[in-house]
Amino acid sequence: MGNVADFTDQNFESEVISSSEPVLVDFWAPWCGPCRMIAPVVEELAADNAGSVKIGKLNVDDSPSSAAAYGVSSIPTLILFKGGEVVNTFVGLKDKRELQQAIDSAKASMPSGARIDAAHPIVGQEPPATPDALPAPSPAAEDVAPAEEFYEQLRLQAEQLGGELQRRRDQLDRRESRLNARDAELDNEARGLRMWLVERQQELDEHEKDLIRRERAIEDRKSQIAAAEAFQESSHTEAQRYAQKQQALHDQRQAELDRQQHELARRAAALDAATDELNSAREQFQNTKTHELQQIEARRESSLQMVRLGLEGLERRRQAVEQQAAEVEGLRKRLLAEEPNRSNVPSGRLLDLERRERLVEVGFELIDKRREALSDLEQQLKDRADAQLRQLRLDRQQLLKQEKQLELRREQMQEKFQKRDSELEARQAALDQLRETLTRSQRESLELRLATEELWNQLITKFPAPALTASLGNIRAQLADHDRQVRQELLEHRQKLEVLRDQLVEQHARLDHKKREHQAWVERRTQELDQRTQSLTARQFKLEEQQRAIEHLQHDWSCERLALQDQVQSLIRQARETAAK
């Protein structure tokens, strides 16, 4: 694709977030028709802005994490990054002119940077052996650009820390929104599960009604069997087999109900486990977020402390120069007091003393200007730090409020789950009652068979055998038809139970898949937090290096001050010797 780069979840942090130049990312997919229409525009932008702006594409099917992190819900979507932050977002088809204007605006707002490697021009030089060997003052000696660039760099670092804090706050808001979306998904799943439980309960109620109807049918059949047993002894054996079949059918249905109840309990336990995992992940995320905010505040305090140390060093240097100026002023007064003997002092020495005096006055003026500029910079940094701290306190209050809302919602979910458990217990009690009813029906059936045997013995003595043979044929045909109907109904019931079991297995598989996705999401967020922690550690190391550079510069200033003191003392001694002569 020429100048268009390819971004993935693996290189998104290094190529986009950590890039020093603006980056335009095109979120697309192979199946998206508008994405193919905007592709030539992206390639033209990449060719026109080669070298100044990085332009690339990200496949949302292959890299869903990066797309979800920035809320990409429809494609094509173009997001312009600068310094790791989102500058502008374009959704849908856009023309080249609008995109180019956004890119030009991002390039125009890029800072030119500041150099830190500037040093004082006389640091590290050896002091001259004699006062005559001192170099003449030059404009370079009065240049305060290195110190101003150094403190400008400190100011830029403070601004970068503020930008980093804002970007981290935006990331925390996006993560919070994703957590809320996850809660909504869990609520939808719980709502679907409750609907499924209601449907299953309706099916159980229908099965219970069907059992009652079958019990009534069994009672009717038992009355028919009792009438048949009154005419033939062999019908007693067939009635026993039929009762055994009905008993086996009841046992199978009871076993299937027990399996359904066990499956419901297992699904409820899985849902409780998923809720506990979500709560633990939320607590871990809140702890990590608080720790990162504390680290950012500590680094800001360290930067302010370095600025204060620099101001104290300049103040000490000013006091030393004032002391030296006082000594030179005393020497000048002594020379003025000895004005009659001034003709004996060499003119070159007098000119050198006057030149030293002018240098001291110029140094006072430069130090006053530096002190005022540094005082203004320190006040600005303090005001900005106070504003950021107030914003952090407000953010913490909002986070605490959101945590309370989440805790209240979790308690509501627990109450709903407890209510659901009580409903399941009520269903269990109803099933136990139904089981007792079946047991009573079995006892009544046994009593009916005993009464049928007694009635059969009485009928044998009253009716002849030929009349009973025709009746028994009709009874056998009726029993065969009834047996076929019962078998067909049993087969249909088994098919329904198979379908219900398949649905339970499918629901369990979906829950397992959701659980694995949630675990993968927690692992990805943990890795991202680890990467952020490493990046912050590297930045803290850079700040420590800058602090060491400040200490080295202060040491150089101390050496320079000592050299100036030695030179002034040497000049004073030479002036005294000349005056004595």
Description:
It is a single chain. α6 (234-337) packs antiparallel against α7 (347-462). This protein has 581 residues and is mainly alpha-helical. β2, α2 (33-48) and β3 form a beta-alpha-beta unit. It starts with a strand and ends with a helix. The protein is built from 8 helices and 5 strands.
Quick take:
With 581 residues, this protein is mainly alpha-helical.
Largest sheet: 5 strands, mixed
What global shape is seen?
elongated
> What is the terminal-to-terminal distance?
88 Å
Helix content: over 70%
What value does the Rg take, in angstroms?
A: 46 Å
Low-confidence stretches: 112-131, 137-142
Number of contiguous helices: 8
State the total count of DSSP E strands.
5
The structure class reads mainly alpha
Strand content bin = under 5%
Question: Which whole number gives the mean pLDDT?
Answer: 74
Strand order of the largest sheet: 1-3-2-4-5
Any idea how many domains? Answer: 2
- Element-level helix/strand string: EHEHEHEEHHHHH
